[in-house]
Amino acid sequence: MEVVIVPDSATGGELIAEAMAALLRRKPDALLGVSTGSTPLPVYKALAAKVRDFEVDASHARICQLDEYVGLPSGHPEAYRSVVLREVVEPLGLTDASFMGPDGSADDVAAACLDYERALAEAGGVDLQLLGIGTDGHIGFNEPCSSLASRTRIKTLTEQTRQDNARFFKGVEEVPHHVITQGIGTILQARHLVLLATGEAKAHAVALAVEGPLSALVPASALQLHPHATVVVDEAAASSLK
Ligand code: F6R
């Protein structure tokens, strides 16, 4: 695992956007796995700027979601499908056809999870998966104690994660209790994992993930198993590293 400490989130965003751009120059139809939440926004902004400035042609890029809330009405502004379309797909000038994600409004959620696993495999697997980290060490929405071999499935959010995500909704009571998330085993199949963490609130989780023992109690520690994992942290998020 490579750990890169950057001064701030904008620098981290630029660094990761350049890694994505380099990948797209090598492989124009690369499958980019994207996460949601606040942390990755500087990455998407920097990548869109590179496209606008003709530094990279992303017109053949393919985008896939990491996770999705269960039960939000389709088109809800905080459904991750809507977020990824708004923050990634549209700014890159792509269409819905270049994008895939699990169906969080499906009647049969278990079937939707299997369908998504199949779709990822048929797409040839994820080339670069961008991850954030929860304050409790989750990746995707694999909360502590998730199996390190897990596949895409329904999970229950912890109260901590619902509180952390309440800022995107009118209040914590509106945050769904359930999500579909790629499993840790699914995430580990991506060819390159890039985790971005910024801010002091992530420092403890980052230290456990990077320096702690491999443990299902800290799902992000699974990155230690991956042959090509890059952790990009700003100084605040790095502040508990030894
Ligand atoms: C969401 C996801 C989550 C977030 C994590 C951090 O797609 O994968 O693991 O990355 O909850 O969220 P922020 O960046 O909002 O602190």
Verbal overview:
The record marks 146, 153, 155-156 as: Part of the allosteric site. Its EC number is 3.5.99.6. It holds the Pfam family Glucosamine_iso. With 242 residues, the chain is an alpha/beta fold. The protein has one domain (2-234): Rossmann fold. The chain is 31% helix and 17% strand. The protein is built from seven helices and ten strands. The chain has helices at 9-26, 41-52, 80-89, 109-122, 159-165, 184-187, 203-211, and strands at residues 2-6, 31-34, 62-65, 67-69, 99-100, 128-131, 153-156, 178-181, 192-197, 229-234. Helix 7 links the parallel strand 9 and strand 10 (229-234). Helix 1 crosses helix 2 (41-52). It starts with a strand and ends in an 8-residue tail after the last strand. The site of fructose -6-phosphate has 13 residues, from loops.
List the SSEs and their pairings:
Elements: E1 2-6, H1 9-26, E2 31-34, H2 41-52, E3 62-65, E4 67-69, H3 80-89, E5 99-100, H4 109-122, E6 128-131, E7 153-156, H5 159-165, E8 178-181, H6 184-187, E9 192-197, H7 203-211, E10 229-234
Helix pairs in contact: 1-2
The protein binds fructose -6-phosphate (F6R).
How do you describe this structure in short?
The protein has seven helices and ten strands. The chain is an alpha/beta fold and 242 residues long. It is globular, with a radius of gyration of 17 Å.
Core attributes:
globular; 7-stranded parallel sheet; alpha/beta; Glucosamine6P_isomerase; binds fructose -6-phosphate; NagB/RpiA_transferase-like; Glucosamine-6-phosphate deaminase; 242 residues; single chain; 31% helix; Rossmann fold
